[in-house]
Amino acid sequence: MKIAIASGKGGTGKTTLSTNLALFLSEKQAVILTDLDVEEPNSGLFINGKLIHQEDKFKMIPSWKKENCTLCGNCQKVCNFNAIIKLGKRIMTFPELCHSCFACSELCPTKSLPMIPQKMGELKHFSLENLDFIESKLDIGQEQAVPLIAKTLDYIDQKFGNNIIKLFDAPPGTSCPVIEATKDADFIILVTEPTPFGLHDLKLAVDTMKALKKNFAVVINRFGIGNNGVIDYCKSEEVKILAKLPNYRHIAELYSRGESIYQHIPIFKTELQKIADHIIKLQTGVAK
Amino acid sequence: MKEIVVISGKGGTGKTSITASFAILGGKNIVVADCDVDAADMHLLLQPDWNFSEDFFSGVAAEIDQDKCIKCGKCADVCRFNAIPIVEKKYVVNDLNCEGCGFCFHVCPRDAISMIEQNVGKWFISNTKAENHMVHAALKIGADNSGKLVAKVKKEAKQIAVSEEKAFIIVDGSPGIGCPVVSSLSGADYAILVTEPSVSGIHDLKRVYELVKKFKIPAACIINKADINTDVTAQIKAFLDEENIIHLVDLPYDETFTKAMTAGKTIIEFGESEMKKLVENSWRKIKELLTDKQKRSSPS
Ligand code: SF4
Ligand code: SF4
Ligand code: SF4
Ligand code: SF4
């Protein structure tokens, strides 16, 4: 079962919830946590597992072999991303713009553009008693998160069966990376804050999940600050609120040190239990 | 005219609240650009009037004319993004997966495929309560090309700043290190990094600064919630020293920011507070830094 933890904007507590929920659930059953925020993966800072596997991830880009090239310019014409251009008597590629569509390569009449792998990031697999943690990190200078997210999801699908609980810490926002990270999930937890910023971003996230026809519910973080806007909105839109995580300075301090929160703050644990109960219901098909 | 970009790598550091405060302090002297187009929030504090709006088109997506299609399957074979599934015995394009590469379009033997320009969002020019112009945007859900929309917002802001002879453009940058933030940084004169002293805060600060370095943009740093973890704050300061990043200010952990935001205000408009003074001082410093650095080569 795949559960993505997402939010309209960053900094709402997505990573706090993902890591604490993963550790909490793993006390009772096996859990896989994957950090798909490949631009800024942070979950690993809160999970001290043993590194059991590491691999570089590649994307395919064209490389020019000038011997047979007739300089017909077809490659430049077919590329929709300006990632390959003809400059005088040379063909230049811009790997950071390339979407790896293979069009230039396969449509080149002289086969002068074989696709070769280029490193875009790395994947690390850590293991703790009952918890596997996987994170991928995009190399600085690479602009596209989506291909690395897709490769990371492939890794998870190959390694683990369907019955196990898989948590995904999704990237922030509502654009392509978050769609990639949530489109295969069975259930989405949207994390928000009870403030005008939180509400505005939650609305975007809810619209996104509705457009994707996803089953989702909300967790309110830093409950107690701000106002009632988020609660009123969830009521009027009939969105389920799974849990309300408290707002204490102590939590911010624990977080700043990379420590787990539920082990120190009982009410945080109570709220996590509510989320766990819902997940178990989903697993057994009691809840929808 | 100088372009100042405020970025943070990770979200939730208070970047937007701080940027909006600078926008108020800058007043008539500046143009504001909200480049966090994926989750634009600054309008909640600056209350723009949405005076001008325009659709933004960028990129293409494939569309199959079923009347012309002979179901040969070539398009689906070449598509590397699994964007052409067979639905009810027809080849159809899945918009969410289509990258708009056009490979299918080139191989279709019947010209059954057209590439359609995509409306990916809207962009706006507004007047704000700080008596300045703000250029902002809203990306459509799931839309691609946020980097291009960021570039558009910046370009329009720059035009206004030049034609109206403003001293500064203040850009609220995007999170992460991917295409939108690359767009936010390109062409900027100065980067303000907003961070917080947590294990993730310092991690993201270092990552985003690597990107700033690639652009060779000078930078200054604001440490928000500095008192929450004094050890990490000290580590951040050591990092700033090492990299020659100017340390602007330590802001304390304080819920006044949130309270002001809940009231739809920046800290500057929310009565007198220690926080307000600190933010005002930072803005003064930034102005000094920019005018000194450039030896007054342009009017300000
Ligand atoms: S399409 Fe092939 S032959 Fe033509 S210019 Fe490009 S690389 Fe050369
Ligand atoms: S593989 Fe596609 S995106 Fe990359 S250079 Fe070739 S045509 Fe352009
Ligand atoms: S344009 Fe490219 S991604 Fe879209 S359907 Fe055609 S081949 Fe696939
Ligand atoms: S390549 Fe053209 S004709 Fe063949 S299935 Fe695709 S759309 Fe239809």
Question: What report would you give on this structure?
Answer:
The complex is a heterodimer of chains A (288) and B (300). Chain A has 288 residues and is α/β, with parallel strands linked by helices. Helix content of chain A is 33%, strand content 27%. Chain A has helices spanning 14-25, 74-78, 103-107, 146-159, 176-182, 196-211, 229-236, 249-256, 266-284; strands spanning 2-6, 31-35, 50-62, 84-87, 90-93, 115-127, 131-138, 165-169, 187-192, 216-223, 241-246. The longest helix of chain A has 19 residues, at 266-284. In chain B, 36% of the residues lie in helices and 24% in strands. In chain B, the strands form two sheets. In chain B, strands 3-6-7-2-8-1-9-10-11 form a nine-stranded mixed beta sheet, with helices on both faces. In chain B, helix 5 runs parallel beside helix 6 (179-185). The complex binds iron/sulfur cluster (4 copies).
Summary?
Helices cover 33% and strands 27% of the residues of chain A. Chain A has 9 helices and 11 strands.
Helix and strand arrangement:
The complex is a heterodimer of chains A (288) and B (300).
Chain A: E1 2-6, H1 14-25, E2 31-35, E3 50-62, H2 74-78, E4 84-87, E5 90-93, H3 103-107, E6 115-127, E7 131-138, H4 146-159, E8 165-169, H5 176-182, E9 187-192, H6 196-211, E10 216-223, H7 229-236, E11 241-246, H8 249-256, H9 266-284
Parallel strand pairs in A: 1-8, 1-9, 2-7, 2-8, 9-10, 10-11
Antiparallel strand pairs in A: 3-6, 4-5, 6-7
Helix pairs in contact in A: 1-9, 4-5
Chain B: E1 2-7, H1 15-26, E2 30-34, H2 43-46, E3 52-64, H3 74-78, E4 86-87, E5 90-91, H4 103-107, E6 113-127, E7 133-139, H5 146-163, E8 168-172, H6 179-185, E9 190-195, H7 199-214, E10 219-223, H8 230-242, E11 246-250, H9 256-262, H10 274-293
Parallel strand pairs in B: 1-8, 1-9, 2-7, 2-8, 9-10, 10-11
Antiparallel strand pairs in B: 3-6, 4-5, 6-7
